[in-house]
Design brief:
265 residues, alpha/beta, TIM Barrel, 34% helix, 19% strand
């Protein structure tokens, strides 16, 4: 049995399709537990700086929550989630926003390094201007801080920094090991996210060695397609299952009312 708890909606400005179409696709694949986790509004930016193509508008958040809760009436295995950016110094503000809604789970993600949106296809120049190993260290420090914040149930695409194929010529085992230790100590899940196969990284997030270390330290795993269109639901899950089993995982974490449970793979 597989799960897919990382879906977006058209509200975020860069996804397509009706919410019901995501559910139809999931049902055709026989997925056990599913969930929408659209991008939380960019509260960390001034209203004039928010990008309508990256996250839902502030007024859309209650509508999003209401829409998922309505769908849950006819789809009991559907969960209400949200994906929230981790921004150092804004933890209290984010905690207050998350507490105002009945989320089943919260996915934390790191998309910014010192204000640089490193996963944006139009903002790749700094990869060529900085030492890649230093960038990786800075990124994984933020991943660790996001886990330690206590705000999140799952850490999304935990090595997203590799998205465009920029990789340091160095052994990353030490960085992976320290990050895995932090995830374990923080009692959060690592997300196995298949979207990396669609980008120059050509690899599921996280890298196999990283995922194996997470299993070694007892970090639970969550699974998500990061679907931005209905046809992407469950995408490349055959490869995800193989990766999970090779790393030693036999079950996947799922959530309801911020409480963790598991389903067997």
């Amino acid at each position: 049995m597989l799960t897919d708890c990382h879906w977006h909606t058209a509200r975020c400005g860069h996804a397509a399709g009706e919410m019901g179409e995501y559910l139809e696709r999931a049902e055709s694949l026989g997925l056990a537990v599913t969930g929408f986790s659209d991008h939380l509004p960019q509260y960390f930016l001034a209203p004039s700086e928010r990008d309508p193509g990256l996250a839902m508008a502030e007024e859309e958040l209650p509508r999003y929550v209401a829409a998922v809760r309505e769908l849950q009436k006819s789809h009991p295995f559907l969960r209400l989630g949200v994906e929230a950016d981790y921004i150092p110094g804004r933890e209290k503000e984010l905690a207050d926003i998350l507490a105002a809604y009945p989320f089943d789970y919260v996915i934390g993600s790191v998309h910014y390094i010192d204000g640089w949106e490193f996963d944006h296809p139009d903002k790749k120049a700094p990869y060529r201007e900085h030492d890649l190993l230093d960038l990786y260290r800075r990124y994984f420090e933020l991943v660790a801080r996001s886990a330690q914040s206590g705000l999140f149930d799952v850490i999304a695409h935990p090595d997203l920094i590799k998205k465009f194929g920029f990789r340091p010529v160095a052994d990353l085992t030490g960085i992976y090991r320290e990050t895995a230790r932090t995830l374990a100590a923080s009692d959060v899940c690592v997300e196995v996210n298949t979207a990396g196969l669609a980008y120059p990284a050509m690899e599921i997030y996280p890298a196999p060695g990283f995922l194996t270390l997470c299993r070694e330290y007892g970090v639970p795993a969550s699974l998500g397609s990061d679907a931005h269109a209905p046809e992407q639901v469950g995408r490349w899950f055959d490869r995800a299952r193989e990766l999970l089993k090779k790393a030693g995982y036999t079950r996947l974490a799922v959530f309801k009312q911020r409480k963790r449970d598991y389903v067997e793979i």
